[in-house]
Design goal:
The chain is an alpha+beta fold. It has 21 helices and 14 strands. Helix 3 packs across helix 5 and helix 4 crosses helix 12.
Length: 750
């Protein structure tokens, strides 16, 4: 061990520390200490904010503990889905949308590889952690690594020599079996860089990695890994998940120095030198394995962000105080009163308030109880109107403070699902647009960060992955080299010549000719595509790749479900309209075929959804240009006059064909018009029949209804007549002034 590191502020250049291993370690330890000092206040503030987000209530008063308004948690839960809702998808394409087969295939290979990497490493979980860091403390960072998976391979044994001697078995060696581009979420306080005003002034970046003894030995070897002090324990980071870890670890700083393009691994407890040192490990264009971090509000002269919670922390504290008071006032709203002790009335009151609801208590001296005013005269109640007034005031004050917080954060009512039923739709749209405008910058910042991470991953994949890995990962079928393409083309040409010779022999012998030679579709597709060597040549060259290939992402916020369908519909409609308008020109002027073909390619390349069909369209256009609409060739033989006559005849034939085509189109138009008129007449006839049937049905219904009403009326009149007759007979029989009438079999009046 050596003495403590000198103060970096006293050094003018890194050379002032020396160039021996111990001096290099001391220099970087001083750099790390200066960077930690620059971020010290922001880190303390971030830990306090995260404690508030976790609702760590140990510091609250006992009487108000558990009574706090979780405003920070609610705001994060509202803003989180608004700025990130789905995993981004890599969109790789040719930068200039020109006719570049190698660039097109290289873009497709890189896009497939990136999207496979995004799916396999759970990129969404990384972005969710970065989103929470961004919203809570104002900064988030990720780190890209290249991870080769090795396996042991044994070469085949060499054959015996001329004397029959067998050589020793070859030594096994390690080969790359699989490769990955991994993205690590760097904890918000594990990322460091030199103090700087802008990201362009950042000279080095570092992250802290905590490693156990076994991990140290595996990474740095037995000699160094076994001696590194384990300087990080549970007590070193209170409040973090590491405080519950049983084993101590070593804090290792992975530093990437851009001026020297060197990566170093340093331990502040090991000053003998760097634990490891590698020259430009990934070969990235900007060297850093991490993009510019996601940053919240920053001052013009600093990269240290200010968390959003700081801007409404005072209001949040007042809201928590009012919430505690509201809880205490709510506890005070209880039915309490005083009554005279002793006596039969007091005993009855005790029985009344200790009994269940709906219980009746008997009173022996009811008259005396009533003379004293009943319960009102026996109990003096504690007034609650002042408590209720104070409670209402606290609730109104808290509501106003919450509204103030929403004004500061820009969370519109419509984003929280809280709307006024009396508001118009226009007012709600204005509120939604206003709220979205306040979070749009956060959406763009997170989308920018996701794009930058995918670009670094794309550089790692393009620069480090083997062609065999990319072929297995992307399922793109290409020939390995241009020489292999030439050999396959020669084989197809030889097969074509053999087929032509066989056809000639068959014609000479009078036998039926064999079927014409057609190259296999798979072989022809391989010839139409560039080789892996050409694709990898473009991917490996950082400059050419940047010139010809662009890596972007689609939106990280939730899209409309109809967007993809709408884009496809627009593509089909645009291509269909172009082809429909181009066919007459092709028929009249076949020489316009190249112009129309290039126009169609230009149209297709403008649609991202059309890239899947671009290869098919290119092949169809190539076949069209090769012989699809060529003008008829003049017959062989004849002099100049015959040539002129042939040309005249050809022009006349073309004019006749054109005229016939025009007449055919005119006849077709007339037939279409006649068919349209016939269909229109049939439709009108069917409509008339339907109208007559509907009128008849309506007449029948009216007649049926009228007959039913008439029947009901007759039935009602009959019932009324019967009732009237019965009523008159009853009145006649019960009238005492009328004489009794004997039954018909009686002799007469009694």
């Amino acid at each position: 061990m050596t003495d403590a590191a000198p103060d970096l502020s006293a050094a003018e250049t890194p050379a002032d520390f020396g160039d021996d291993p111990g001096a290099v370690a001391r220099r970087w330890i001083s750099e790390l200490e200066l960077a930690e000092k620059d971020q010290e206040s922001w880190r303390r503030r971030g830990r306090r904010i995260i404690g508030r987000y976790r609702e760590d209530r140990a510091e609250a008063a006992p009487e108000t503990r558990g009574r706090r308004f979780s405003l920070l948690w609610a705001n994060i839960q509202t803003l989180g889905p608004a700025i990130y809702a789905r995993t981004p998808t890599a969109v790789v394409g040719r930068r200039w949308k020109d006719d570049d087969p190698v660039g097109r295939v290289a873009s497709e290979v890189l896009e497939r590889a990136l999207n496979f990497a995004v799916d396999s490493l759970d990129f969404s979980d990384v972005l969710l952690g970065l989103r929470d860091d961004f919203l809570l403390v104002g900064r988030g960072q990720a780190w890209v690594r290249y991870v080769p998976h090795l396996r042991t391979a044994t070469p085949p044994a060499p054959p015996p020599d001329a004397e029959g001697q067998v050589a020793d078995d070859p030594e096994p060696f390690e080969v790359v079996d699989w490769e990955e581009a991994v993205v690590d979420h760097v904890c918000w306080d594990d990322f460091l860089h030199n103090p700087a005003r802008t990201w362009a002034e950042v000279r080095w970046v570092a992250r802290t990695v905590f490693m156990t003894r076994e991990e140290l030995i595996l990474r740095f070897g037995e000699e160094v890994g076994g001696e590194i002090p384990l300087d990080h324990g549970p007590e070193d980071r209170a409040g973090s998940p590491d405080e519950n870890q049983q084993w101590k670890k070593a804090a290792i700083y992975e530093i990437w120095d851009k001026p020297s393009r060197t990566a170093l691994w340093i331990s502040r407890s090991w000053t003998e030198g760097a634990l490891d040192r590698r020259e430009d490990p990934l070969g990235l264009a900007d060297f850093f394995p991490c993009p510019r971090p996601i940053l919240g509000a920053t001052a013009p002269d600093s990269l240290i962000p200010t968390p959003d919670y700081v801007y409404y922390e005072g209001q949040a504290r007042d809201i928590n105080d009012l919430t505690g008071r509201i809880g205490l006032l709510t506890d005070a709203i209880r039915l309490r009163g005083f009554y005279a002790a002793g006596g039969e009335a007091g005993k009855s009151l005790e029985d009344l308030f200790s009994s269940e609801s709906g219980t009746l208590i008997p009173v022996d001296s009811w008259a005396a109880f009533a003379e004293r005013g009943g319960v009102k005269g026996l109990i003096e109640w504690i007034p609650l109107d002042m408590v209720m007034s104070a409670l209402q005031g606290c609730i109104e004050a808290r509501k106003q403070l919450i509204d103030d917080v929403y004004q500061v954060t820009g969370i519109a009512d419509i984003m929280r699902g809280d709307t006024d039923p009396e508001e118009t739709a226009a007012a709600q749209r204005i509120k939604a647009n206003w709220g979205a405008s306040r979070v749009r910058d956060k959406q763009k910042e997170l989308a920018r960060f996701a794009r930058d991470v995918l670009r670094i991953m794309g550089q790692v994949i393009a620069g480090r992955f083997a062609p065999e890995t990319l072929a297995a990962m992307t399922n793109v079928q290409l020939l390995p080299t241009p020489e292999a393409k030439a050999a396959l083309a020669a084989q197809l040409q030889a097969a074509a010549r053999q087929a032509a010779m066989a056809a000639a022999r068959a014609q000479a012998t009078g036998q039926p000719p064999p079927p014409p030679f057609r190259p296999p579709a798979a072989a022809q597709a391989l010839l139409d595509q560039p080789s892996w060597a050409e694709v990898m040549g473009l991917l490996r060259d950082n400059t050419l790749r940047a010139f010809r290939i662009d890596i972007e992402t689609d939106s990280t916020i939730e899209p409309d479900d109809q967007d993809e369908k709408q884009r496809r519909i627009e593509f089909i409609q645009a291509v269909g309209a172009y082809v429909a308008k181009s066919m007459p020109a092709l028929q009249l002027a076949p020489a316009m075929t190249p112009v129309i073909a290039e126009g169609l390619k230009f149209l297709v390349r403008g649609f991202r959804v059309g890239r899947e069909m671009e290869e098919v369209i290119d092949k169809a256009l190539a076949d069209l240009q090769a012989g699809g609409l060529q003008p008829p060739q003049p017959p062989a033989g004849g002099g100049a006059g015959a040539s002129r006559d042939t040309q005249t005849d050809r022009l006349k034939a073309q004019a006749a064909v054109t005229s016939a085509g025009a007449k055919a189109q005119e006849a077709g138009a007339r037939r279409f018009e006649a068919e349209t008129d016939r269909f229109r007449a049939q439709a009108e006839a069917r409509a008339d029949v339907a109208r007559v049937q509907a009128e008849n049905a309506r007449t029948d219904a009216d007649r049926s209804a009228e007959m039913a009403m008439h029947h009901d009326q007759l039935k009602a009149d009959l019932q009324q007549a019967i009732l009237s007759g019965v009523s008159r007979r009853f009145m006649r029989e019960t009238d005492p002034a009328q004489p009794l009438v004997a039954p018909p079999d009686a002799g007469g009046p009694i």
